[in-house]
Amino acid sequence: MTQKVILKKLREIVGPENVLDSPESRTAYSYDAAAMTPCLPFAVIRPADAEAVSRIILLANEERFPVVPRGSGTGLSGGALPSVDSVVLLTNHWNRILEIDQDNMTATVEPGVITAQLHQAVERLGFLYPPDPGSSSICTIGGNVAENSGGLRGLKYGVTKNYVMGLEAVLPTGEILRTGGKSVKDVAGYNLKDVLVGSEGTLGIFTKVLLKIIPQPETHTTMIAFYASMDQAAKTVSAIIAAKITPAMLEFLDNTTIRCVDAYTHLGLPLEAEAMLLIEVDGRRPVVAEDAERIAAICRQYQATSVTTAQSEAESVRLKVARRSAFTSLARVKPTTIMEDVAVPRADLARLIERINEIGKKNGILIGNFGHAGDGNLHPNYLTNERDAEEFARAERTVFEVEEAAIALGGSITGEHGVGLYKKRLLESMVGHPSVTMMRTLKTMMDPNNILNPGKVFDLRPKCEGTLPRDRDKILKFEEVAWL
Q: Domains, the chain, ranges and CATH?
């Protein structure tokens, strides 16, 4: 069947107005937030409900064209990047909060709900949805579930998988699966929900998500501490954890990031500081007050040059601006910013930062580091220019070497951004051949025709050919970038 005939059938399923195949639309959905070469899909579609998605997947199996699910496209590992001859299936228009069940402390949402909007909705009722990705103002719940997103509150509260209680999803064969529910305890059969969470759009398309919410903490206190030594900041993190204090946030910025943030926000940060820790504790008032006092003492014990505690909610928000604007601030320095995501045991965080700086200096690449110090998840940002082929090659080599360094320290190539296309080159090195074989077996069993998001995490490489009017000299064939 030709693409023209497939487009006709897609229009019959979703309506002509919901099939976008103009050059402009195809270009707009040819890339995500990863610094990777775009690829033109042959169409972009907006189905109305799970039944329409099911019909689309059945057609895709019949005609053997790939389907790439997409929320807001904020992913940083190429997970929403189309392959040639693929159809991009949008879910960001399904943006209703269907129910907030206060008695059972759950929220049922469509996959296109913006994460920050869910935060606001439940907080108005005295609840908290803890997962808090850095892109929460624009990312969607469906994408969070697909990537198992983390965020600033991950140390104390965990990541997205810890809050998914149930899913409605269209499987790669077109069947509609409903798994999980509001029961707090349920061990009937295999845990299919956790198979789908974090599967990066390769095993199912989410159409409804049932989430756990928790009572909002009574209060919180936000603190910021600066250090003349990276080592002292790292020792502070270890000491806080050793003191049996679990902050809601324990975030880190290095000197390069501090300077960029201050140039962007004009917060008056100390430019000579080698490291900054953002710390927040929450809970009952007496406990929060005691923990904040103990943390301040630990910071001073490990030679913090200054420790500031927010005295109001407005000041708390102001202190958190430094961390939340880190990526935006670094992205202003060079035309291209590769935001990476590696994780190590938190005791090895200082060693990882030292290795990152060594690798960056060796390769002549400027790197700004920030991340979740409390759980060992670091975001090195490689500041480069993709139009300078030689410099960009050095940046990509730096990324690869840093991921190898994280593996050598017993860490992971991704703490929260997912494998996608960008990191699959090192997946087997990290998890081993038996693990990858088991993943491939599961994918083949659930998606025998390799319809859903092919080429992501692992797989045979789909070809990507063609050109895009996106200020690029050419579009590489997929084989040329598949190692990314």
A: 3-92+443-481 (3.30.43.10), 97-215 (3.30.465.10), 220-323 (3.30.70.3450), 334-420 (3.30.70.2740)
